[in-house]
């Protein structure tokens, strides 16, 4: 009855268009599936022309890559964009963003499609049982069997479904570039797997075809789901859920992020110079003064060393290294953007961390302070001791996050973030001094860097100007939606 009412209200044209698109989509999916099936059979039954092509390409690329460690390093870095260590957190993070933006259907699509790819990869590899290439000069290794390429399959599925879900948030003139960027990433990941000698060309082609078939099937199922829920089924070129465009935009209805950007850039640059000058003055004074308590405290702390504390201090020290700081920033920024729909706090955090890194590197190179004379558990380091980069990065990150959260959250749990802004730097500082990598005055230098630099950004960027709670941000976006001109 409901279906009859829909037809009476809208006519047969939408139904006919849906049927035409469904048949075309079915034909495309069938063609992709058949191509993958043929390729699978050729691999499974060791068709000689395909084997010769695979080996020829693998040997040629191995001769090219094995001559340069830099090339191998770059290829491995690009290849990581198709690994589970990147793709799995990315899917979970984007699903969380969609749930925050109250778009559960695309979130379910991401999770289900991603889980399907996660299951298919090892299952097919075990079924086919193809060994990985044996090249003359191995430059990389990978576990498991070879066909299909898990990186090629995963990158095709994840970046493909990201395009389908987030396309409505992209302006029409930028959509070809958005799709092209995803295609370049997928192609680059596939190339690196062959160039590193861990997959044949046919492995990568098989991964791409299987991934394309899988996202096509799940996208078709999603469109059926929409239709059964009473929604229209627009062309796939408009994305899976075109009406979600406003909700998927990073910061709809936001005004200018930084008024007078050139003036602000000049203010930030001048502030950076003053902070660097302050750090250099203090570092130079400490270097000339060489306070006796610095080394004495490190040597005293060294007397408490045990294998268990060494391991614990290593873990605590890792909480302040570049990878940990970058991971926390990459998790916090999308969630903050989804919650409060403002770029200003993201800009504040980005400037904080970029400024911290450049100030630390320049100050350390200028001051040139030696590490403590106590045994250094982490071995020789490329930078000097003052100020501590680990401590400064940890302090800047958690202080900036606390500043952002405290003005936008009204619940009592917000006090967790100021607590972390105190606890995390102290833990990292204690571990770095315990491991003989820094003096107590290096910790003071990191605190000085944090206080001065965040003070500059507080005055210039004003991260909490127009700060809103989640509810207030939703109301602002809804008002902006009502004021949007009708297309």
UniProtKB/TrEMBL annotation:
Annotated transmembrane regions: 23-47, 81-100, 107-128, 148-170, 177-198, 204-222, 268-286, 322-340, 347-368, 388-406, 413-431, 443-461
Alphabetically ordered keywords of this record: Membrane, Transmembrane, Transmembrane helix
InterPro entries for the chain: PAP2/HPO, PAP2/HPO_sf
Organism of derivation: Actinoplanes utahensis
Phosphatidic acid phosphatase type 2/haloperoxidase domain residues: 107-219, 346-458
Protein name: Phosphoesterase
Record-linked SMART domains: acidPPc
